[in-house]
Design goal:
The protein is of the alpha/beta class and 322 residues long. Helices cover 60% and strands 10% of the residues. Helix 2 runs antiparallel to helix 3, helix 6 packs parallel to helix 7 (187-200) and helix 8 (210-221) crosses helix 9. The chain is elongated, with a radius of gyration of 27 Å.
C-alpha cells in the first residue's frame, strides 16, 4: 500500500508542477500583451473593478443593479478581443493552456480520475515493456506499404483500413480485433499504430506482451503475501478496466490449463463491460483452437474481427537491406 500511495503522490506532484508551469506560461503571454497592445491592461483593470462591484451588489441582494455592469463587462470583453485581433493575436492568446483540457491538468474530473491520470498509472506499471518508446517509431505516420507485394499487399491494405476505422470509431463503437499470421508480417506494427493514435487522443491503453500478461494474472492468483497482493493489484486490475487492452504475441506464453482459464476470465469480463481488446498471434486459427479452451476460443473467434496477415518476415528483410 505504501508503494501505491507513493506512485499516486508522484503523479499528483507532477500535476501540481504542470499546473504551475501552465500558469507561469500564461503570465508570460499576459505580460507580452500588456507590453505590445496599448490600452489592453487598462481594460483588464476596468474588468476587475466592475466584476468586484457586480459581486458586491449581488451579495447585497441588488441583482437588478448588476445588469448595467454586466452589459459593460460584455462590451469590454468584445473590445479586448478586438484589440488582440488588431495586434495579430488569437482571441484566446492569454487564456491558460492545459496539457489536458478535460481535467485542466489536475488529474481529476468531478472527483474521478481523468483519463490522463489513468494513462499515467498505466505508463508507470507497464513502463518496463518499453512500448512507449517504440510507439515513437511505429505509428500511422511511419507506416509504409513499400515492403509488401502481391496478396500480402492486398491483405495489409485491408488490415490497415480496418485499423484506421477501429481508431476513428473507438469512442462510439465497441469492437475487438484478432491479428493472426506468420512472424514479421506487420501485426505488432499495426497494433502499435492503433495504440499510439488512441493514446494521443487521451484513451488509456495497456499494451503488454502475452508472457507479461500471464505473469501478471498468475502472480495475482498465486500471490504469497498481503504485500505482494497490494502492490500487484493496480497492475492486475488495469488489464480488466482499461478502455483498450492490446495483448501482443499470444501463444508465446507457457501452455497450461491455468493460462487458458485466466485468458477466458479477462476476455469475458472485458466483453461484459464492452471494453475493447486487440490480440496479435503467430498462431493460425486452427492453432488457436488446439491451444486454448473452448470457452476462450468462443470469445476469440465469436466476438473478434479476424485480420489475417501474410507475407515474408519484414524484420529479416529490413536487416538484409541495411
Amino acid at each position: 500500500m505504501i508503494e501505491e500511495k507513493a506512485i499516486y503522490r508522484e503523479i499528483i506532484n507532477g500535476y501540481e508542477r504542470q499546473l504551475a508551469a501552465d500558469k507561469r506560461e500564461q503570465r508570460s503571454r499576459i505580460m507580452q500583451v500588456y507590453e505590445k497592445v496599448p490600452g489592453y491592461k487598462q481594460l483588464e483593470d476596468r474588468t476587475a473593478d466592475l466584476s468586484a462591484e457586480a459581486a458586491i451588489l449581488a451579495a447585497m441582494g441588488k441583482k437588478e443593479e448588476t445588469a448595467p455592469l454586466l452589459h459593460m463587462l460584455s462590451d469590454i470583453s468584445a473590445e479586448k478581443k478586438q484589440l488582440l485581433k488588431d495586434a495579430g493575436y488569437d482571441d484566446d492568446f492569454i487564456s491558460i493552456r492545459y496539457i489536458c483540457p478535460d481535467c485542466r491538468d489536475t488529474g481529476y474530473i468531478s472527483g474521478r480520475k481523468c483519463h490522463c491520470f489513468e494513462q499515467k498509472l498505466i505508463n508507470f506499471y507497464y513502463s518496463r515493456s518499453g512500448i512507449y518508446e517504440k510507439l515513437k517509431e511505429e505509428n500511422f505516420d511511419t507506416f509504409s506499404f513499400d515492403m509488401f507485394q502481391g496478396p500480402a499487399l492486398n491483405r495489409i491494405k485491408d488490415n490497415y483500413l480496418k485499423a484506421r476505422e477501429f481508431t476513428e470509431r473507438f469512442a462510439d463503437e465497441y469492437r475487438n480485433m484478432l491479428f493472426y499470421g506468420g512472424v514479421g508480417c506487420g501485426k505488432t506494427f499495426l497494433s502499435n499504430c492503433i495504440a499510439k493514435e488512441l493514446i494521443d487522443r487521451g484513451v488509456a491503453v495497456v499494451y503488454v506482451s502475452a508472457i507479461a500478461f500471464f505473469d501478471i494474472l498468475l502472480a495475482q492468483r498465486f500471490r504469497r503475501s498481503d504485500t505482494e497482493e497490494r502492490v500487484e493489484l493496480p497492475k492486475y486490475r488495469a488489464l480488466f478496466e482499461c478502455p483498450l487492452l492490446i495483448i501482443d504475441d499470444l501463444g508465446t506464453e507457457i501452455e497450461s490449463q491455468a493460462v487458458s482459464s485466466e485468458l477466458f476470465d479477462v476476455l469475458n469480463e472485458r466483453d461484459l463491460k464492452a471494453r475493447s481488446t486487440i490480440i496479435s498471434t503467430n498462431l493460425s486459427v486452427e492453432g488457436i483452437k488446439d491451444r486454448y479452451s473452448e470457452r476462450s476460443i468462443s470469445r476469440l473467434l465469436g466476438n473478434y474481427e479476424l485480420c489475417k496477415f501474410e507475407g515474408s518476415d519484414l524484420r529479416l528483410m529490413k536487416r538484409r537491406n541495411q
